[in-house]
Automatic annotation (TrEMBL):
Family annotation (Pfam families): TctB (PF07331)
Keyword Membrane: yes
Protein name: Tripartite tricarboxylate transporter TctB family protein
Keyword Transmembrane on entry: yes
Domain DUF1468: 10-141
Segments passing through the bilayer: 35-53, 79-109, 115-140
InterPro entries named in the record: DUF1468 (IPR009936)
UniProt entry keywords in alphabetical sequence: Membrane, Transmembrane, Transmembrane helix
Amino acid sequence: MSRLLASTLFSFFLFVFFVLFALEAATFSRLAQFFPYYISITGAVLSFIYTTIQMRELIKQRESKEELMTLKIKRPLKYLVWLIGYVVLVYIAGIIVASVLFLAAFLYVESRFSVIKTVMSISVVVTGLMLFSNFMNLYWPNNLLGL
């Protein structure tokens, strides 16, 4: 798979995502739909334009029969697994606990931070989350553990 083809497929995925989000936002109450509806419409239009441009380039590339550069998929999949793991952790343990566990694992394993840098980073993020939730009067949804 070439990079251009992968990029085109991802742009198409974004287009589908924004269209589905616009359809979902259209079901919101009139006041609640304003921001998500227009953002998703804008995203759908821009991603459609970008996908169309990329498809034209892909057709030109196929017609000229240029040598295609292969895409290395292993590394992006590794980060996708990290993100899926974070989402699962949020579902199971809640956003605060999941953020602590995810950051500890990711910063120590992937970024190779020292323990001190990892602890400092986690402290900043947790403090930021707490301040943000108190300032905005947010209630984080329940999780499976009830934390």
